[in-house]
Design goal:
single chain, alpha+beta, three-stranded antiparallel sheet, 9 helices, globular
């Protein structure tokens, strides 16, 4: 996957007009995921950065909802792996949320009025993201969808990552808790790592 665009904490505060205190209060209340706070070394020392697209969309949602809901209520609304949104197969295609290629491959036996859960849609969305990079084949998309179907529910909304690895032409998908470290034998290539909370946030933004 191409490296996501980051924004520094200073730039974020200036751009959104929120205060340092607000940002970290929202973090404590779990309105902003812990793993969006990315520490990186710079020429001035350690600085905090954020995935730009995700953090700006999240802060915009918080600011638009905070007058009507308490922070605790907001936390429930914004938990990215607990969305209850459901969409019909034909609606996913019409709204360009999931490509027709993925729907025809992974939902080939499902009629157009099939209603998918958020988790099913997330698996389709993840396949779309990896196919767009050119790093994954349609056969591998089948493996991804099967891995998500069998193991994603076990995390029960807890943070996790989907890892796509390959060795000597043989592909494997793993779902790992966050934070985690994984070690592979020599010659294994990590093709991609998808943070499922971030991916769910991107999907939710498209659904709104």
């Amino acid at each position: 996957m191409t490296e996501r665009e980051l924004i520094s904490k200073k730039e974020l505060l200036e751009l959104t007009g929120i205060s340092y205190g607000q940002l970290y209060r929202w973090k404590r209340k779990q309105l902003i995921p812990e793993d969006w706070f990315i520490r990186k070394s710079t020429f001035t020392g350690q600085e905090t950065f954020f995935p730009k697209e995700l953090i700006l969309a999240r802060i915009d949602r918080i600011l638009n909802m905070k007058d009507d809901l308490s922070l605790d209520e907001l936390a429930g609304k914004l938990s990215p792996l607990l969305y209850e949104a459901k969409l019909r197969k034909d609606e996913l295609s019409k709204r360009n949320i999931v490509s027709r290629v993925v729907l025809e491959r992974l939902g080939a036996r499902d009629p157009d009025d099939t209603v998918y859960s958020f988790e099913q849609t997330l698996a389709f969305f993840a396949a779309d993201q990896l196919l767009l990079t050119g790093e994954m084949s349609l056969d591998e998309a089948d493996l991804l969808a099967q891995t998500m179907k069998e193991h994603f529910p076990k995390f029960e909304g807890k943070p996790c990552e989907l890892w796509f690895v390959r060795k000597m032409g043989v592909s494997t998908f793993l779902l790992l808790s966050v934070p985690s470290e994984a070690y592979f034998e020599s010659g294994t290539k990590v093709v991609a790592r998808l943070n499922m909370a971030e991916l769910a946030e991107q999907l939710q933004t498209k659904l709104n």
